[in-house]
Design brief:
The chain has a single domain, classed as P-loop containing nucleotide triphosphate hydrolases (Rossmann fold, 3-Layer(aba) Sandwich). Helix content is 34%, strand content 26%. The chain is built from seven helices and ten strands. The protein has a six-stranded mixed sheet. Strands 2-1-4-5 form a four-stranded antiparallel sheet, with helices on one face. Strand 1 and strand 2 form a beta hairpin. The longest helix has 18 residues. It is globular. The mean pLDDT is 90.
């Protein structure tokens, strides 16, 4: 259970979302994916976003991750207002400050596990020796030290998602965004992956926003935010 700090001494939230709205299309046919969502996520916390398909979870993650722009409202990441960033600035933010974990793993089939973990560091032009050392450290952290030279097709689904988590941590992000990360895994494998993600949040001090239908993850979250029809209908802290 999360220890509650004195508000006067607690650090500011990592993520602050205020009156966020996102519509697609115009006129009577417009789809209002988000309808005035506001919440914050603290440093070192795991927040689970809960809701049926179409509730707005993925749209919210895309906006917080700088992959899309809102129709109205604001997103601040570690004090930076995403609306004030150029496209190059948003690209740098995603590369340097955010790690993404996807339902489909998103690994490059022709690369080894270690090489997949190293991809974000290549984009930052990290020297090869440092890149390889960091990849080894992260694979050991997720329990795959002996699988560094295997390609995704030689790994189980759970192992591939562990590689994806290691890759998300490559550039020491402030925020991890995960969209249904256990969606292709069986219950036990999914639970072990989520326990790993929770442990990583604790050990690395990062913030995690995770969209999920998985009750196992909700049990591990510091906070569960439920969305329905683009609005927050309930917010529960552990």
């Amino acid at each position: 259970m999360t220890q509650h700090r004195d508000p006067a001494t607690a650090p500011p939230p990592m993520v602050v979302v205020e009156d966020l709205r996102r519509s697609f299309g115009t006129g009577p046919q417009a789809v209002h994916a988000l309808r005035g969502v506001s919440f914050s996520a603290g440093r070192g916390e795991l927040t689970a976003l809960k809701g049926r398909s179409g509730s707005g979870k993925t749209t919210l993650l895309n906006l917080v991750g700088g992959l899309d722009r809102p129709t109205a409202g604001s997103v601040r990441l570690d004090g930076t207002d995403l609306a004030g960033l150029t496209e190059d600035g948003r690209l740098a933010l995603r590369r340097d400050r955010i790690g993404f974990v996807f339902q489909s793993f998103g690994l490059i089939p022709v690369l080894t596990a270690a090489e997949n973990v190293g991809v974000p560091m290549r984009l930052r032009r990290v020297p090869a020796a440092r890149r390889e050392e960091r990849a080894r450290t992260l694979l050991a952290m997720v329990g795959l030290a002996d699988h560094a030279r295997q390609r995704p097709g030689e790994l189980s689904g759970g192992q591939q998602q562990r590689v994806a988590i290691a890759r998300a941590l490559a550039n020491e992000p402030a925020l991890i965004i995960a969209d249904e990360p256990t969606g292709q895994l069986d219950f036990e494998t999914g639970r072990s992956v989520m326990q790993l993600l929770r442990a990583v949040v604790r050990s690395e001090g990062v913030t995690a926003l995770v969209a999920t239908h998985d009750p196992a993850l909700m049990e591990l979250a510091d906070r569960v935010v439920e969305l329905r029809d683009g609005r927050i209908v309930e917010e529960v802290r552990a």
